Backbone:
């Protein structure tokens, strides 16, 4: 038993205990963090009271883990940081949570206010709330113990209401030590209710959407991670099933409808987007990932229907013909109900066109996934992983990297909603490991974390967290010896490794072994398949280092078109030009053969 719970309380509570009580009253089960002054005792008290505290190795990882829990549960994930440097480390992931639209709360201790405010040179002194303001969906400071329930309710509501996001809560160190009468404290303890009520769309707009779809020849659905977050899988599947409308899953919406569903346009994305005449966006923003809904990727006359909880999103980049403001689950229910009075069917011609393109692309690219080429490419390594995961649908997949991300998204099918977590809206590296920790902690299910060698390096020590908590996580690193690829050279004569080069011969599995994970070194697809099968069956932390060719991969993966191109010098040659081939076609990968 801890000293804190053993000490006589004289009828009092203090800031640390009351904060823990308030979190528990609001259903907070887990907290990720890195402790130190002034929050160490708070973390210990929270643990003693029953919150599962997952100590992590970097604050950004704690924040990413909390954000992933927010996505997986629909309740804000909570993480804890120390003042100034720890706070700032965490802030990046809080911003990422907001960009992804995931509910998340950063609780940070901060140093003594009056010395901070007078710049007296306080230890880790920083006016943290001021720094958080532009990064967080909103930020609050709790100065008085009696405001703790109010402050936490504000944070929870703000994180979950409308488009979810990251909320900062500043806790000056004297708050931790403030006391109040315990009975009085219990009286003001309350639980935030009705956080995600049904929000139907205006019925006139629903009618407009149904009419647009009824008159469409080539209607298409783009389903995004907002639909996954909204738990709208039943309604979306029913709508697709009844209308035969093909759908394109955005990366983290994979599995909302299983990837092997015949309505999926994953293998004919480019053609589907170019030829659709009405597109229904379900929880997907028209941001860079969808080319802002304009340009040569789209039919110039295409009409958009968009369902979103955030009214300000409509028209972000182009006019939306039919904005449906409401929550996806309820609005999709309205659309399904409308099918009784509207005859909506995708034309057979369109379905056949897409099916033919899918067949062509699958034949064209499928071979790379089953090839025996050694050293391996991303494609045949991920093909081996796919074969194992096809037999284990309940495994969560977390994924980061460039080629490792793009090719995994294309090759590894998902069958269940919210089972794939990746670099997201911002394209952030270093998320696969912390997302894996959160997926395992939150769901208790097995997780496979798949990173490129560069991406892995952003959160390498979280494998220690996985081992310390004995989590069923298989960490996989696809090592091609560099950022994008391992065979780039110094363009000058320094003799140094190129800016993209990393160690192609590194035995990453030994990082796992250092902490007790079973290590594997896979050099062939058959080895990888066997190793992953064994590792998953063990239910224990494992680490598979996969040796790829240093020639495998392309610069910037599938988003080479975002890279500015030099117009003179050695990089203005074809070496660079062929990297962006048909970015719109999800399946198009290494056009250039391995050198
Ligand atoms: P993706 O990256 O998969 O395309 P985005 O993150 O761009 O998805 O878009 C998700 C959208 O879903 C956001 O605009 C967000 O406001 C919206 N959203 C999130 N939750 C809900 C909900 N419950 N109901 C309606 N819209 C939602
Ligand atoms: Mg690499």
Residues:
């Amino acid at each position: 038993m801890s000293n804190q719970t053993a000490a006589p309380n004289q009828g009092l509570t203090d800031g640390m205990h009351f904060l823990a009580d308030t979190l528990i009253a609001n259903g907070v089960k887990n907290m990720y963090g890195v402790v130190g002054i002034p929050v160490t005792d708070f973390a210990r008290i929270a643990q003693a009271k029953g919150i599962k505290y997952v100590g992590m190795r970097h604050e950004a990882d704690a924040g990413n883990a909390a954000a992933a829990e927010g996505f997986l549960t629909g309740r804000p994930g909570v993480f804890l940081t120390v003042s100034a440097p720890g706070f700032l480390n965490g802030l990046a992931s809080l911003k990422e949570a907001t960009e992804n639209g995931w509910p998340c709360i950063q609780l940070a201790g901060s140093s003594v206010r009056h010395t901070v405010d007078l710049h007296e040179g306080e230890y880790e002194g920083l006016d943290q709330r001021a720094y958080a303001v532009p990064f967080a969906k909103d930020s609050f400071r709790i100065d008085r113990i009696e405001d703790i329930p109010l402050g936490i309710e504000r944070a929870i509501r703000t994180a979950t209401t409308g488009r979810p996001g990251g909320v900062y809560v500043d806790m000056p160190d004297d708050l931790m030590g403030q006391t109040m009468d315990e009975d009085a404290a219990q009286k003001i303890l309350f639980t935030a209710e009705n956080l995600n009520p049904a929000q139907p769309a205006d019925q006139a707009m629903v009618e407009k959407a149904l009419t647009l779809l009824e008159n469409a020849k080539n209607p298409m659905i783009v389903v995004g991670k907002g639909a996954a977050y909204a738990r709208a899988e039943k309604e979306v599947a029913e709508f697709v099933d009844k209308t035969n409308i093909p759908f394109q899953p955005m990366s983290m919406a994979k599995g909302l409808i299983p990837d092997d569903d015949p309505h999926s346009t994953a293998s004919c994305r480019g053609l589907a987007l170019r030829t659709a005449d009405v597109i229904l966006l379900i929880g997907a923003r028209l941001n860079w990932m969808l080319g802002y809904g304009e340009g040569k990727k789209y039919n110039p006359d295409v009409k958009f229907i968009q369902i979103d909880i955030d009214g300000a999103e409509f028209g972000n980049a182009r006019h939306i013909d039919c904005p449906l403001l409401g929550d996806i689950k309820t609005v999709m229910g309205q659309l399904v109900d409308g099918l009784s009075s509207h005859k909506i069917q995708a034309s057979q011609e369109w379905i056949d066109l897409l099916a033919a393109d899918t067949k062509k692309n699958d034949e064209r690219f499928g071979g790379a996934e089953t090839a025996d080429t050694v050293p391996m490419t991303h494609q045949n390594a991920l093909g081996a992983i796919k074969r194992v995961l096809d037999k284990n649908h309940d495994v969560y997949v977390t994924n980061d990297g460039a080629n490792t991300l793009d090719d995994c998204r294309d090759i590894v099918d998902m069958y269940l909603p919210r089972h794939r977590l990746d670099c997201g809206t911002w394209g952030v590296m270093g998320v696969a490991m912390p997302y894996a920790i959160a997926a395992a902690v939150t769901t208790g299910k097995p997780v496979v974390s798949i990173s490129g060698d560069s991406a892995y390096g952003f959160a390498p020590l979280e494998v220690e967290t996985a081992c310390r908590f004995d989590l069923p996580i298989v960490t996989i690193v696809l090592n091609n010896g560099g950022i994008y690829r391992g065979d780039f050279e110094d363009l000058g004569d320094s003799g140094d490794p190129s800016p993209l080069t990393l160690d192609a011969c590194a035995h990453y599995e030994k990082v796992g072994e250092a902490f007790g994970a079973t290590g594997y070194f896979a050099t062939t697809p058959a080895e990888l398949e066997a190793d992953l099968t064994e590792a998953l069956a063990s239910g224990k932390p494992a680490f598979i280092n996969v040796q790829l060719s240093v020639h495998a991969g392309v610069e910037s993966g599938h988003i080479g078109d975002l890279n500015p191109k030099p117009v003179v010098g050695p990089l203005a040659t074809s070496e660079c030009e062929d990297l962006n081939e048909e970015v719109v076609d999800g399946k198009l990968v290494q056009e250039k053969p391995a050198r």
In short: The first strand starts at residue 12 and ends at 14. The chain has 24 helices and 19 strands. Residues 452-454, 480, 482 surround magnesium ion (ligand 2) (CB under 6 Å). Residues 398 and 421 are 5 Å apart (CA to CA).
